[in-house]
Specification:
It is built from seven helices and twelve strands. The chain is of the alpha+beta class. Helix 1 packs antiparallel against helix 2. The model has no long low-confidence stretch (mean pLDDT about 90).
Length: about 260
């Protein structure tokens, strides 16, 4: 089953630099997106370290493993690559004063046949568009999500919360971080959207769904989403990756870190 990729980044309307980073390895069906945090240019450093390190290391592993790897082995490779990237960012942050406190969210995906393996840390997300319906397939690691899960606030109230950027997991902030991974099925015509919160903070899911329905080509979808996020305020950097399967569809007590975004 063939796969189509598209990715785009935009600084938005409120920032002069871009702390988001993406990497796509079409040959191995791999996509990585990160949204960095930290003072000066540290957020950019963290996100670029994460995407370049993980895409390079996973790409090498996939080249050797090819189609023979089991799903358990693929999941283990995800964990090892992310753990190595986490240590690299953590060590850099603790050995260079200008990088102190830097870290990044992360969402990565690998497509093999009709299977999609997704891993994520923080509040960068992945969605699946199928049969004119949009489903979020990651769950934010954030204080806000924990408040929703505990029934302290409603999803509607969350849209206006001041705690949007408080994440409970981030790459490079501590010497260990847990990657959450899930396996999903893909049908011909499905579209996977991976994005930073610069998109989702500006556009509710209903608007994302309308844009997916209104456009067919992946570049048109991506450009329409970025334009809409900027029109809604563009308060943060915006990054996204779109992946489509060929064919037609069938009609707390834990710590948190404030992202300086």
């Amino acid at each position: 089953m063939s796969i189509e990729f598209y990715y785009a980044l935009d600084t938005g309307r409120a920032r002069s630099n871009n702390e988001d980073s993406v990497a796509v390895d079409e040959a191995h069906g791999l996509a990585v997106l990160a949204d960095g945090m930290g003072g000066y240019n540290a957020g950019e450093v963290a996100s670029q370290m994460a995407t370049s390190f993980i895409s390079a290391e996973m790409g090498r592993w996939l080249e050797l493993a090819a189609e023979k790897a089991t799903d358990a082995e693929l999941r283990r490779a995800f964990d090892i690559c992310v753990d190595n990237a986490n240590h690299a960012i953590f060590d850099a942050a603790n050995s260079n004063p200008q990088y102190a406190g830097m870290g990044t969210t992360l969402v990565l995906a690998h497509v093999r046949g009709s299977e999609l393996r997704v891993g994520h840390i923080g509040d960068s997300r992945a969605y699946r568009w199928r049969d004119n319906a949009l489903s979020q397939i990651t769950r934010d690691h954030s204080l806000l999500q924990e408040q929703i899960d505990a029934g302290l606030i409603t999803p509607e109230q969350a849209a206006y919360s001041a705690n949007k950027n408080l994440v409970t997991r981030a790459v490079g902030v501590e010497d260990h971080v847990q990657l959450e991974t899930h396996l999903h099925d893909l049908h011909p015509g499905d579209v996977v959207l991976m994005c930073s919160d610069g998109l989702t903070d500006m556009l509710p899911d209903a608007v994302l769904a309308r844009l997916l329905q209104a456009h067919d080509a992946l570049p048109a979808i991506g450009q329409a989403m970025i334009a809409a996020a900027n029109e809604a305020g563009g308060k943060d950097n915006i990054s996204l990756i779109l992946i489509r399967m060929a064919g037609s569809g069938s009609g707390s007590s834990r710590p948190w870190w404030k992202f300086g975004r």
